Amino acid sequence: MKVEIAVSCHYFQRRMSWMISSLLEQLGEIPQLVFNVAYDERTGNPTTEQTLHFFDSLPKSSNIVIDFKHTPYVGTETLQYRGLVRNRQLAESDADFIFFSDCDMVFGPRWFEKLLPFLEENKNDKRMFYTGRYSMPVGDADKLVAAHKYPYRVRDPFGKAKGARLKKRRNCGAGFCQIVSVKSMRENFDGLYIPPNNCRDYSWEKKYQKAKSDVTFRRRVGRVSMPLPYLYHLNHIRDNDTKTHTEVQR
Known about the structure:
By secondary structure, the chain is an alpha/beta fold. The protein has one domain (about 1-240): Spore Coat Polysaccharide Biosynthesis Protein SpsA, Chain A (Alpha-Beta Complex). It has helices at about 15-25, 50-55, 80-90, 110-120, 140-145, 155-160, 180-190, 215-220, 240, and strands at about 1-10, 30-40, 65-75, 95-100, 105, 130, 135, 165-170, 175-180, 225, 230-235. The radius of gyration is 17 Å and the shape is globular.
């Protein structure tokens, strides 16, 4: 089974390095993984291209297959509307399931081992699957991330994240864990994450970034909570807090 993790990265390359590092420490039998990143070309320190090439060049593990997939944009005209980006990622996917996520999440070492049988048992369900997250204070997450020079493979990212102060959140949030059958999306929902004429995401060039297309997506397809461990969230300052767009490196 192939699972494609679809994220967008705009100045989140350092936190994304923690996410990828946690994927490289998965244990047991897991799906074949595709890590698909949408990004503005040559942006960030390090850039997304440099980050993905770094991880792709690391020695391969016998039980972990990760294909790194680039979804580049020139400028942010489309990238700022996450629902439209996810439309493209879904359209170009050849996976069995697509896992829409944020690029600041950390997985426990047996998370995908537990995900695999759940997806096999529910492969004909057209609804999306989700779990909750543990979110740490922004300052704590900033200190963890600042401890390294990137690109960098973080060792035991789950242990480091688990040891921080954490707040349990059961809601879906802005769409950090939304897993859905690619076949079902094409057969039942026109192959679209969000109808292009009903994308409610805020334009950060006009106001500030706020992803609201995820709510529309969940209402369209329905949702099911998975009996899986929660993810760990490397929290950060966000546009919704400051009511203005920020492009600091995170």
